[in-house]
UniProtKB/TrEMBL annotation:
Name of the gene encoding the protein in the UniProt record: Tm9sf4-L
Entries under InterPro entries matching the protein: EMP70
GO terms for biological process, alphabetical: protein localization to membrane
Name of the featured protein: Transmembrane 9 superfamily member
Organism: Homarus americanus (American lobster)
GO CC entries: Golgi apparatus; membrane
Keywords: Golgi apparatus, Membrane, Signal, Transmembrane, Transmembrane helix
Length: 620
């Protein structure tokens, strides 16, 4: 009973993760209240998000109310909360004080001012929402003189080694209407400015300041008196509600993605040419000669891959570990493929906050059934007997690595009081998903997979292993690893740049159609390069291809790790210890995940290839 209750609860969470309140069109009447909510503060220099009220900002008079969030939003560090800004639909508002009187400004202590100054020095951006639409700041590109937008607004700036805070916000809200009765918000821009408290004039709830004014300095050596103000300007727009995300999703040049696709296709065609040469000019000729009535001595001199037919399907060392890693790779592959397809059809758009991460985690959990089945059948093929412990390895090896790494990093995030720290209740919920759902599903799949007939091999394995001759220098495992990883990485490194930008620079990634094509090209290229490397290995009479195919085809993960270091040094400005630790910790998880994914693809491609070529020859 308790197990079915947990499953039902998780199914509700899945459906809720795909749909986030506020995504559906919201119609306002004139003078209706439009709520401005705060999400968090982010910086690409620290990678540590903070909730809005971690600084001493104005709070609503009726108290702070936090929005209930899904799993993905919590893991992203979002803490959506109401703000004291009073905005009416289609009603312009002149300069107004936020939450205090002109004669009673906010007084920041020296410690509070230092905290604000530290955030400004690390270039923190504040993210606000109106009708689930994030605020954007408009700026001009110097090279092209083109107006572009970036998410959020700057908390402040540094000038002449002094710290200034943007304490006045001008909300420029655009609306669309067809009948002048129903209004929909289609754009949310913010123009920030810094206004010294001595420049502000007016009554308790009204204010004004000259066009040329002094900025508001944050005094780190003493107390700081500050007033927060805002104004609202509404503009009618022809942009419809369905297109209101275009300014955020057009921050990247689509032509670059097309260049990435063309580059990837060139790589695939290059590999296909090599494979065609091997299959048609070499394999077909070898198979024809082996099947003909030629002398054995001549056959032995022709090639070496047939000589190891009695050992090529000999089970590898550590079959339990091998099948567990392959099963985890299958699980990651299924999760990634389904998630990309769902996102490609718009079910996990950026408007559905946190839905992408929520869907990915829950799909990974439920893909444990497939992982257990594939791993169980492979383990039986490798003549394994201890299927229960093998199933336990499959269900715990990779998740334990991710959980332990994340739990270790979480201590440092807690120490920084960042909203990116996973709450204890969420940590326990993730642990429950792992123990109560993933592990049982993996055991169920393993049970049926282990009971299934093992994969049939076209040749029998000799009882006595054949001695492997000394290999040529270019077949060294490390050299093969680096060689095999170049082409798959070259097929996807441009798209990897945009993925890294979305993760580390808080940008949107939405071109999932391109990502799906790149994913297919990555699968094809990994399979092709694995076949080529295994064929060369067998021609050298080295039949230890099981682990080699898994490790070598995952060689592109080495280049992903190297690219992450290059990206850190060229694009990010992380200098502190904790942000660096977080960057390398999360990058290690991504690299390991990518290695399992590509390694599993390469193994199955090599396995299918070997079964086919040895099944095509006549062997006594």
């Amino acid at each position: 009973m308790w197990y079915s209750t947990i499953l039902l609860t998780l199914l509700v969470q899945i459906s809720w993760g795909f749909y986030v309140p506020g995504v559906a069109p919201v119609e306002f009447k004139r003078k209706d209240s439009v709520e401005v909510k705060a999400v968090k503060m982010t910086s690409s220099q620290t990678q540590l998000p903070y909730e809005y009220y971690s600084l001493q900002f104005c709070r609503p008079r009726n108290g702070t109310i936090y929005k209930s969030e899904n799993l993905g939003e919590v893991l992203r560090g979002d803490r959506i909360v109401n703000t004291p800004y009073d905005v009416k639909m289609a009603v312009d508002t002149p300069c107004r004080l936020v939450c205090h009187q002109m004669s009673k400004p906010i007084v920041w202590t020296q410690q509070e001012a230092k905290e604000v100054a530290d955030r400004i020095r690390h270039e923190y951006y504040v993210h606000l929402l109106v009708d689930n639409l994030p605020c954007a700041t408009k700026f001009m590109m110097v090279e092209t003189q083109e107006q572009v937008y970036e998410r959020g607004y700057k908390l402040g700036y540094i000038y002449d080694n002094k710290v200034y805070i943007n304490n006045h916000l001008k909300f420029i809200l655009s609306y669309h209407t067809d009948n002048d009765l129903d209004f929909r918000v289609v754009r949310f821009e913010v123009e920030e400015s810094s206004v010294d408290i001595s420049e502000l004039k007016g009554t308790d709830d009204r204010c004004s300041f000259p066009d040329k004014h002094n900025p508001q300095e944050v005094k780190e050596s003493g107390t700081t008196n500050i007033l927060f103000t805002y104004s609202v300007e509404w503009q009618q727009s022809n942009v419809r509600w369905a297109s209101r995300w275009d300014i955020y999703l057009q921050m990247t040049d689509v032509q670059i993605h097309w260049f990435s696709i063309v580059n990837s296709l060139v790589v695939v065609f290059f590999l296909s040419g090599i494979l065609t040469m091997i299959m048609i000019r070499t394999l077909r000729r070898d198979i024809a000669r082996y099947n003909a009535d030629e002398s054995l001595e001549e056959t032995l001199e022709e090639s070496g891959w047939k000589l190891v037919h009695g050992d090529v399907f000999r089970p590898p060392r550590y079959p339990k570990l091998f099948s567990a890693l392959v099963g985890s790779g299958v699980q990651i592959f299924c999760m990634a493929l389904i998630t990309i397809i769902l996102a490609m059809f718009g079910m996990l758009s950026p408007a559905s906050r946190g839905a992408l991460m929520t869907a990915g985690i829950l799909l990974y959990v439920f893909m444990g059934l497939i992982a257990g089945y594939m791993s169980g059948r492979l383990y039986r093929t490798l003549r394994g007997q201890q299927w229960k412990s093998a199933a336990f390895w499959t269900a715990t090896l990779y998740p334990a690595f991710v959980f332990v790494t994340g739990f270790f990093l979480n201590f440092f995030i807690w120490g920084k009081r960042s909203s990116g720290a996973v709450p204890f209740t969420t940590m326990m919920a993730l642990l429950s998903l792992w123990v109560c759902i993933l592990v049982p599903l993996t055991f169920i799949g393993y049970y049926f997979g282990f009971r299934k007939q093992p994969y049939e091999h076209p040749v029998r394995t000799n009882q006595i292993p054949r001695q492997v001759p000394e290999q040529v220098w270019y077949m060294h495992p490390m050299l093969c690893l680096l060689t095999a990883g170049v082409l798959p990485f070259g097929a996807m490194f441009i798209e990897l740049f945009f993925i890294f930008s979305a993760i580390w620079e808080n940008q949107f990634y939405y071109l999932f159609g391109f990502l799906f094509l790149v994913f297919l090209i990555l699968v094809i290229s990994c399979g092709q390069i694995s076949v080529v490397m295994v064929y060369f290995q067998l021609c050298g009479e080295d039949y230890h291809w099981w682990w080699r195919s898994l490790i070598t085809s995952g060689g592109s993960a080495v280049y992903v790790a190297a690219y992450s270091i290059f990206y850190l040094t060229t694009k990010l400005e992380i200098t502190e210890f904790v942000p660096l630790l977080l960057y390398f910790g999360y990058t290690t998880i991504m690299v390991m995940t990518f290695w399992l994914l590509t390694g599993t693809i390469g193994f199955y491609a090599a396995y299918i290839f070997i079964r086919n070529i040895y099944g095509a020859v006549k062997i006594d």
